[in-house]
Structures are given as C-alpha cells and as structure tokens.
C-alpha cells in the first residue's frame, strides 16, 4: 500500500527523523523481532482454528465421544498456547516501540530547543515565541504518536496484510488474485485523497501555532491588557484564530475520514467476494469446512489490517507535516555565527577598549531605514561614558551591536582592538555584563536569579554581589529570604527589587565591560542613591557605557556621546557640552528647568 512513488514523496519529510532514530538500532531490532513474532502468532491462529475444526469437530460420525473430546481439548490447548505467545510478543513490542517513540521525541525536542537558543534576535523578529512553543509541544506529540505507535502498527498490519493475502492465495490462488486486483483499484484513488490529507495536516498545525502565538503574547502582557480593558477584544481575537484552526482541523478530519471509509469499504467488498467464493468451494467439495474457517479468519485479518493501515496512513501524513515544521526550525541558520578561525582576546586589565569605526547599520526587518549612520566613537579602558539623545537615536542599537546580536552593514566594531566578527560569540559575551532597562527575572528564587550572572559562582560570591546591589534591604523582609520563590517573570517583586537583582547579577559576572541601560530607572529616590553608590563601586577597574534619558545620572561621566538620528553630533563632558550649546544643552535645559 505504501510502496509507490507518490506516497513515498508525501512521507519524504519523515526521513529527516532518521538521525534521531539511528542511535537506537538495538532497541529497533528488538522491536522488529517482537513485531515479527507477534505477527507470526496472529497468522498462526487461523491455521490453529482449521486444525480444531477439521481435527476435532469434523471427525467421522462413528468416533467415540471421549476420543472427540480429547482431540478437541488438545486443539484448544494449542489455541491457548498461540494466544499466550501472541500476548507476550505484543506486550514486548508495545513496550519497545513506546520507549523508542518517547526517546526519539525527547531527543528531537531537545535538539530543536537547543538550536533555537542559538538563533540571533533577528530570527525572532519574524517568528513568534508562541509558534516556536507550539512546534516544540504539539508537533513533537504528533511525531511521538507516529514513531511510538503508528509506524509500529503500520509495520505489523503490513505484515499481516501481506501474510494473510499469501495464505489466501495459497488456499485459493485464482480467486485471491482477482481480489488482489480489486484491492489495487481501491488503493490507487486513495493516493489522491492522501495528498489532500497531508496538505490539510500542515495547515492545521500552522493554525494551531497561530493560536499559541496569540496566547503567548497576551498572557505575558496581562497587566497591560487589563489596564486598557482589552480582555473582551483579545478573547475575540483568540476566538477568531481558534475557530479558524478548528475549521481547518475539521476539513482535515473529514478528508481523512473519507480516505478511511473508502479503503475499508473497498477492501471489505473485495475480500467478501473472496469469502463468497470460498463458500461455493465448500459446497462443491473443493475445500473442507476447516479450510473455509481458515479462509474466513484470514479475510478478517486482511480486512482489519487495511482498516488499521488507513488510520496509520493518516497519522503518518500528519506526522510528515509536523516533521516538516520542526525541520524548518532545525534547518534555520543564525545570521550571527562564530568565525572559522576565531582570535583570542587579550587578558583584560582595567576594563575593555571599545571602538566603533564608521558604522552604518539597518535592522533586517526594516530595510531602507538606517539606524546608525557613519558612527565613529572610541571608549578607553576604565572610562565611564554615556550615550544621550532622543528616542530612536540609536542608543540601544549600539548595545545590541556590541553584543553582536546583529551584524553591521558597513564599518567595524572592535573590542580591545579585535573586530567582533573575529571573536567567538561566547568569548565576546563573556566580557560583557548588561543591566537592561526592563530587567528579566526568571522563575526561581532570588539567589537563583543572581547566580544567573555566573553559574559557577559560590553562594558567598553571589551574596556579596547581592549586598553590593542593596538586595539585602528587601531580601531580609521576604518570607524565605534569598530562597524566596519570585514567580514567573518576577511578578512577586516590585520593579525596583527586580532592577536591583539585575544589577547584582551583572556585578557577579564581573565582566570588563559593563552596559547600563537606564539601570536605575525603576528605583525610588532613596534606592537610587544606594544603587548609584553600588554602581560607582562596580564601575571601578572596568569600562562602563551608560544609556541615560535622565541627564542627572550622567553628569559625572568621563565623556558623553550625543546621538541624533543615528549620528554622533557631539561629545565631551557635561560642562563642555552645556557650554557649547547644541542638542545636549537644550535637553539639559529642559530637564533641569523642569
């Protein structure tokens, strides 16, 4: 049924699973052995029934009752023995194939997740996080069902189908060759229906991913949704996507049901024709009643095998679509990668040197709109510099380029004299600590989040960083201190508390280059003074670049770079820039006057 070129092409994506299946050859061999033994036991049952009918029930009329009962008992014991073998081998097959399915799915899920983690932020500009999660969960579950159940059932029933046909042909060759020809006429139209099932399976998975994308986005922004009273509108938006997914799923299910009905009815019709011929052969004295019983059971085996194969075919088509979607993730190549021959960074003493050399950059998702234009700036080791300018001037982009989340279009960025493109990403990013404006807090304890800055740090080192960032002030008041669970995204903490944890995390990393993106923006006046003092201590012996909208926080910077529309329009100390007038002076006048 599944050996022609057309179905092979439809199942082509499943070949991508071979690297995940190959490591488990021993388990697969065992599963195939148990499968063959279970199929053989099943095929032996009709023959055992034939022996029972002909050797026990169809004895000559003058046979003594005791002899008849002994013969029947012996044949029933034979049947029971076959049933025991069938049960044992079926259970062993089920265990092995389920184990393989679970193991392969776990490996596949891990491979996809690890691969996605390596992608640059550019990757997530076009693909929603919810869709990635849908592929990791829904699609892998579909594949698990296929690998752990459907393929095994397909192989088993293929063996039963072929074996049953072979036994039927051996019993009545002319009749079963006619039946086989009719079956071929049934299978051919099913191929066209199967092609439609595969397309709808892929579409159904895509629509489910759409709903996951919407849900993931909204559930991560519940406070905003509720503050703007958009609950009903978002529920309607999800409902529309959900109904579209349902409609697509119904079309897939309907087409698959049509395929199943067509195969079952057509095959049963063909095989009933064979049974009708068998009855005629008994009446004509050409075969015995036991042979007829055997033929009937083989017909039932073949027919039930076709029904199961129809279901399996639909499962495999769906799994093919799911595999295709997962392989799209695995085949994605990050726009940012390690160089073939990376250079080593020199040992850092007193901070890192940073240089932008005539850098021009445009985000890939916004072509034709340069964010940085011919930008050149130099930061000496140990300096504290500030980036100032209106929103959209390119300040945050500089931080992203420094961490090589994107590639510059023109020019070069150097760290300690080495072009970032010549460094391993891990080496580059190990030299940089970042405190973002919106701190990211993970589900876990306060101490877990601080140690995220350096996983191999001791508890004493983590606690020292926490004290330096004044985390102690609020951790002592928490129910379990540093072992307090902070909730998803740190929702049990205030904004200022989350910010101080982020600062402690950066301090613990102890990198030569520190990037602060309005690091004190969420703090009250008292906490800000305390953390500013901690940051001042943390800035010693390292280079610090600060993005600041509140100019009061950068007045003591060694140098201030003023940006406007992606260009460097001025630089100097606070006093120099105010004295010269220009953009910085206007911004300072507005803020300090206010």
Q: What does this 3D model show about the protein?
A:
This protein has helices at residues 5-10, 18-21, 25-57, 65-117, 129-171, 173-219, 222-227, 231-283, 289-331, 395-402, 425-430, 446-451, 459-468, 472-475, 495-509, 525-538, 574-580, 583-593; strands at residues 354-361, 372-379, 384-388, 410-415, 418-419, 432-435, 513-517, 543-547, 559-564, 567-572. It is α/β, with parallel strands linked by helices. The protein folds into two domains: 13-197 and 249-331, ABC transporter type 1, transmembrane domain (ABC transporter transmembrane region fold, Up-down Bundle); 354-593, P-loop containing nucleotide triphosphate hydrolases (Rossmann fold). It has a six-stranded mixed β-sheet, with helices on both faces. It has a four-stranded antiparallel β-sheet with strand order 2-1-4-5, covered by helices on one side. Strand 4 and strand 5 form a beta hairpin. The radius of gyration is 36 Å and the shape is elongated. The N and C termini lie far apart (80 Å).
